[in-house]
Automatic annotation (TrEMBL):
Catalytic activity annotation: (S)-4-amino-5-oxopentanoate = 5-aminolevulinate
Assembly and interaction partners: Homodimer.
Protein's recorded name: Glutamate-1-semialdehyde 2,1-aminomutase
One BP annotation, GO: protoporphyrinogen IX biosynthetic process
One GO cellular component term: cytoplasm
Modified residues annotated as N6-(pyridoxal phosphate)lysine in this record: 266
Organism: Microbacter margulisiae
Keyword Nucleotide-binding among UniProt keywords: no
Chief localisation class: cytoplasm
Keyword annotations: Cytoplasm, Isomerase, Porphyrin biosynthesis, Pyridoxal phosphate
Top EC category: isomerase
Length: 412
């Protein structure tokens, strides 16, 4: 019975640009048919025709504890009864900040926003205010949200996520965004040399999730730390994907690098819209009203979102075994992929950190391990794996989507 979803699709196309294909939807269509999700529980989502699907991507990252996780549902219900937005600081916001500061090594002070995009744009604004410089170095293929200046071609002609220039983006915006090459420290140094005293910050995905889980060379991250310090620019780790995921303290803990500013999103709100950015006190205190850099948001730190985020972060913070268990599974996953590569005779390397990152991108509540998928559904897994290989990347987010499609279960 696809009648319901087909008529819903027509209506969506009339009202929403792109209909169900509007960007960043994990579930667009299955078998070429549009899918409208009605509800979700655990690792599954259910469409309006009553079909169930496994949500491998955890709704593009945030739902790592599964959909409608009881403790989060309960806290949202209780908080809704106490009010959802006060426009004033709360104990909840303070508790959330306390958790972030205790979990993320470099963060001494933190400000809440509503998304990863807001977090990165605010961090950049702050870096510009703090350094009184304008130019930002980013890396080709790294994604930092939909803020205008990041969706444009810059410097060496790189394109973010294959997105074209937005018409109307002016040269003046473009010229302040310089693009370097990931894992190529010389390309960063060349930009520092070309623009002496002009670069405010380097922003990097410490694991390039948006390039298909490309791991950094440790020497590259160390080089970024060293160069930014030498040239008095700030190092911003965009940990919207890696935060609380690669390790409890994110990529900075995993790789032992201390950035100046960190941006967070996805997991942090337990499925509600929350982003955050934080770092050294001295820098964060440049924010108004203490300092001159203005940044504020109507719903930032709202108690409903904070309540959900607190349950999410406390769950991760109080259960370190989640991380050791994941690391174990990551080892197995890396081994499984290596074996598969060997069987197909295709050369390739998948290491533990890459697997860990990948595994933690998934919804952990029911799809506990990719081994389950492999064993229960060898043929489909083979197709999935093959598609990863053909794309030249392993288990990239876009491949998860393909995996979802090919693994679509129409039974419960
Ligand atoms: N930064 C990174 C590394 C991301 O992957 C994303 C989103 O995927 C963002 C920033 C933007 O976050 P949001 O989509 O919550 O605005």
């Amino acid at each position: 019975n696809k009648k319901k979803s087909l008529s819903a699709y027509e209506k969506a196309c009339e009202l929403i640009p792109g209909g169900v294909n509007s960007p960043v939807r994990a579930f667009k269509s299955v078998g070429g048919k549009p899918v409208f999700i009605e509800k979700a529980k655990g690792s599954k989502v259910f469409d309006i025709d009553g079909n169930a699907y496994i949500d491998y991507v955890g709704s593009w990252g945030p739902m790592i504890l599964g959909h409608a996780y009881e403790p989060i549902v309960e806290t949202i219900r209780r908080q809704a009864l106490d009010g959802t937005s006060y426009g004033a600081p709360t104990l909840l916001e303070t508790r959330m900040a306390e958790l972030i500061v205790s979990m993320v090594p470099s963060v001494e002070m933190v400000r809440m926003v509503n998304s990863g995009t807001e977090a990165t744009m605010s961090a950049i604004r702050l870096a510009r205010g703090y350094t009184e410089r304008n130019k930002i170095i980013k890396f080709a293929g790294c994604y930092h949200g939909h803020g205008d200046s990041f969706l444009i071609k810059a410097g060496s002609g790189a394109v973010t996520l294959g997105l074209p220039d937005s018409p109307g983006v002016t040269e003046s915006i473009a010229k302040d965004t310089l693009t370097a090459e990931y894992n190529n420290i010389q390309s960063v140094e060349a930009l520092f040399d070309a623009y002496p005293g002009e670069i405010a910050a380097v922003i990097v995905e410490p694991v390039a999730g948006n390039m298909g889980v490309v791991l950094p060379e440790l020497s590259f991250l160390k080089g970024l730390r060293e160069l930014t310090t030498r040239y008095h620019a700030l190092l911003i780790f965009d940990e919207v994907i890696t935060g609380f995921r690669l390790a409890k303290g994110g990529a900075q803990e995993y790789f032992g690098i201390v950035p100046d500013l960190t941006t967070l999103g996805k997991i942090i709100g337990g499925g509600l819209p929350v982003g955050a950015y934080g770092g050294k006190k001295e820098i964060m205190q440049q924010l108004a009203p203490v300092g001159p850099v203005y940044q504020a948001g109507t719903l930032s730190g709202n108690p409903l979102a904070m309540a959900a985020g607190i349950v999410m972060l406390e769950t991760l913070n109080n259960n370190p075994s989640i991380y050791t268990e994941l690391d174990r599974k990551a080892g197995k996953l890396a081994q499984g992929i290596r074996n598969n590569l060997q069987k197909t005779g295709i050369p390739g390397v998948v290491n533990r950190a890459g697997s860990l990152m990948t595994l933690f991108f998934t919804n952990l509540s029911g799809v506990k391990s990719f081994d389950d998928v492999m064993q229960s559904d060898k043929q489909r897994y083979a197709a999935y794996f093959q598609s990863s290989l053909e794309a030249g990347i392993y288990l990239a987010p876009s491949q998860f989507e393909a995996a979802f499609v090919s693994h679509a279960h129409t039974d419960e």
